[in-house]
Amino acid sequence: MIHIYSSAVEEGGVIPVRYTCDGEDVSPDIRWSGAPEEETLSYVLIMEDPDAPIGTFTHWTVYDIPASVKFLPENFPDYPQIDGIKQGINDFGRIGYGGPCPPPGKPHRYIFRIFAIDQPSLGLPAGASRQEIEMAMTGKVIDEGSLTVYYGR
Question: In this structure, what CATH number is given to the domain that contains residue 66?
Answer without folding.
Answer: 3.90.280.10
